[in-house]
Amino acid sequence: YLVGVGRADCTGPVAQVPLMGYANPDQVGGGLLSRLYSRAFIVAEPEGSRRVVFVSADIGMVSQRVRLEVLKQLRSKYGELYRQDNVILSGTHTHSGPGGYFQYTLFWITSKGLVQPALSSIVNGIVKSIDIAHESMKKGRLFINRGTVENSQINRSPFSYLANPESERNRYLSNTDKEMVLLKMVDEDGHELGLISWFAVHPVSMNNSNQLVNSDNVGYASYLFEQEKNKGMLPGEGSFVAAFASSNLGDVSPNTHGPFCANTGESCDNPQSTCPVGGAAMCMAKGPGKDMFESTRIIGQNIYLKAKELYEKASQEVTGPLSTAHQWVKMSNVSVELNATHTVKTCKPALGYSFAAGTIDGVGAFNFTQGSVEGDPFWDQIRDQLLGEPSNETKACHKPKPILFNTGEMTWPHPWHPDIVDVQITAIGSLAILAVPGEFTTMSGRRLREAVKSEFDSHGTPGMNIVIAGLCNVYTHYITTYEEYQVQRYEAASTIYGPHTLSAYIQLYRGLAKAIALNATQELSPGPEPPLFNITNVTLLPSLSTESAPAKKTFGDVLEEVRQEYREREVAEVTFVGANPRNSAENATEHNFLTVERYSNISSSWRVVLNDASWDTRFYWSKGSRSQSNVTVEWHIPAGTEPGVYRLRYFGHYKKRVAFFRVISVPFEGSSSAFRITAP
């Protein structure tokens, strides 16, 4: 094959924008722990015209808006080379990235609308990573390997899982998928290019109290792998690209200690995930570490170490033709033939009561509980008044789900949920990547993979490696099995197209697999094109106004200085007169907020040893009164840091009024005093 890899920053605004994932409007960005990246991989047939693109981006999920804008840019740059059928865009599902990049109204509620800078940085970052991969294409080889990752996940809805038939459950050793599938890429001389790993785990090691933008556990795994392969480079630099992509993670949590009552410390591993005192709002899962930062590193390191082992031992070469199959489907109206006599249908989208309960990884508001199959007259009344009562048809279609948000019948100011959804399979030789538009649970994913594999087998393409890539192309929440749906925990309440959603997807992906196996993909009907709503900027974000420094101070001045001396494992920190980091995001995509620099006696100069993409640094922004704000830079000095003289620097932009109607952004910087790190 011809193979190309690329990585580009897609971080966007790190302040004031709500973070996407926990749907908690109070969880608003207030700084940066690690940068977010889009990682792109292109594989092409050396002679033929066929090629495929796989992108994994450090974002909560790929929205339809992001996908349509990316495809538009690719069309204007490359003509018909990169299209909806051969480009897969997948989100890692970190819950600590900026939100606001959706065109459907439901997602505006917790994201403060459509936030153009967040949307643009994601779209531009994805396109740029594809550009870099496109430019770097060369002859190469692919190898696949698979193995088991231990101690890194639990099923967070085990009572739903137990609703699946016993005969089916008995075929599996665990109630989560522990298998990692890894694709290794090298050039024809054996030089390493990159890898894609698929593994099912929620990137929610960072909980909903976190306000620092970061890529969570899978992002930390990427960081460790890329740091190892791009020796001597700063984080985010170097040619080796390691993507840790999402899979069927719907009911899979990394918080391996399981759910406990925050107030009493007793287990709340019960069907309603509720505590005797304080109810469901007190029931939270904890990770393996002493805090969320350590848990993120532990889970990320586990995933990284398994990937490293699989990468080093990968010897099964992937060869054979490339093919792609894609359809747009009106997901609210799919007829599914369950058997010769029985046909069922999907529903208009709706969210159930337990959606509002959240999960043990991030509890909801108002003390809703999971497993609600009954509505509540109080909330029903509020729903009917504010949002309109669901039609009898929708109520009946979704049974036993009591409907909280009747999104499929809500159209103001735009539809609340997508109706037209992408289904897509890309085959690279013996590897079939199923790009799914949401979060399949463990058992849903198993059923889908099995159905697609048997479809390939029965049409003369045996031995395919089937992998699910999650959170692709458009976000449609969760997909549970029919049996799990009956229990109506969070994942089931968020299965928006009703009880037969999974059966519909299985039927659709079977059709795509059959078309690939019979070499008949050109006969697939493309389906109805999704809408691109005409929205420019609808946002409740505070506008960026002019800023000021305290009396007798200027931007970048030190307010609280570092100590003169530190040891490893201590935290060096400095506080500056700061400015809103959103100013910087609007000025440059590649902006570094901070550096750690070491003094070199040989050259008598400062050398950058870390930037803000490092997981050892933290950048905090806090807004004060009277248009003033502070920035604190922390460096958590790791064991093994070279002794010597160091300093911390900060780079920002402030807004200054130069005329009545004209405000400009002025760059500035600040530096701590020099400090020494002493030998342990």
Automatic annotation (TrEMBL):
In this record, what's one Pfam family? Ceramidase_alk
* GO cellular component labels: cytoplasm; extracellular region; plasma membrane
Q: Please list the residue ranges annotated as the Neutral/alkaline non-lysosomal ceramidase C-terminal domain.
A: 510-677
Q: Which residues form the Neutral/alkaline non-lysosomal ceramidase N-terminal domain?
A: 1-507
Q: Which InterPro entries match?
A: Ceramidase_alk, NCDase_C_sf, NEUT/ALK_ceramidase_C, NEUT/ALK_ceramidase_N
Q: Output the Gene Ontology terms for molecular function.
A: metal ion binding; N-acylsphingosine amidohydrolase activity
Which prosthetic group or cofactor does it need?
A: Zn(2+)
Under which main EC class is this enzyme filed?
hydrolase
Catalyzed reactions per annotation: an N-acylsphing-4-enine + H2O = sphing-4-enine + a fatty acid
Q: What is its EC number?
A: 3.5.1.23
From the UniProt record, give one GO term of the biological process aspect. sphingosine biosynthetic process
Catalytic residues (UniProt): S253
**Any note on cofactor binding?**
Binds 1 zinc ion per subunit.
Recite the UniProt keywords alphabetically: Hydrolase, Lipid metabolism, Metal-binding, Sphingolipid metabolism, Zinc
Q: Which residues bind Zn(2+)?
A: H93, H202, E439, Y478
Q: Which family does it belong to?
A: Belongs to the neutral ceramidase family.
PANTHER family membership: CERAMIDASE, NEUTRAL CERAMIDASE
Q: Could you tell me what this protein is called? A: Neutral ceramidase
Q: Which organism is it from?
A: Vidua chalybeata (Village indigobird)
Whichever gene encodes this chain, its name is Asah2
